[in-house]
Amino acid sequence: MRYISSRIERPIRIVALSSSLSNAKDVAHWLGCSATATFNFHPNVRPIPLELHIQGFNISHTQTRLLSMAKPVYHAIMKHSPKKPVIVFVPSRKQTRLTANDILTTCASDVQRHKFLHCTEKDGGRFIFKAGPFHTV
Fold this sequence. Notes:
The protein has five helices and no strands. By secondary structure, the protein is an all-alpha fold. Helix 3 (62-80) packs across helix 4. The longest helix is centred in the middle third of the chain and has 19 residues, at 62-80. The radius of gyration is 19 Å and the shape is extended. The protein starts with a helix and ends in a 7-residue tail after the last helix. Residues 131-137 have low confidence and may be disordered. This is Small nuclear ribonucleoprotein. InterPro entries: Hel308_SKI2-like, P-loop_NTPase. Keywords: ATP-binding, Helicase, Hydrolase, Nucleotide-binding, Ribonucleoprotein. GO terms for molecular function: ATP binding; helicase activity; hydrolase activity.
C-alpha cells in the first residue's frame, strides 16, 4: 500500500466492510495505517448479527487435511446457512479454487444438484462451462 501511495503521490483511503477483526491493529500496521486512522467495530454493533461456525480437523499432513475437509464444509454450509451467503477461509488462492471445486462436486452428487445455481442454466451456462467438469450440472 505504501508503494502504491508513493507511486501515485497521493494517500490511499480504504473503506472495508466485513466482520470485526481480532487483530485489527496488526492489519493496520501491515497496511501502514496509524492507530488514529483505524476503526474496528465490535460484532454486537452489526445491523445483522454475524454467525460464526468453526470446525477443526486434527490431521497433521496439510494436503490430507484439506482433502478431508471438502465434504464436511459442504455439509456445514447446508446445515448452518443453506440459503444465505457463506465465507469459507482457506490458506491460499490455489486452495480457494480446489475447495470451490470440491464443494461443487459434492453438490453435484447431492439430490438437489442446483442448490447453488441462482439463475437459469442458460444465463449461467458460460460461467458454469468455465468451471470445467461442472458444465453438466
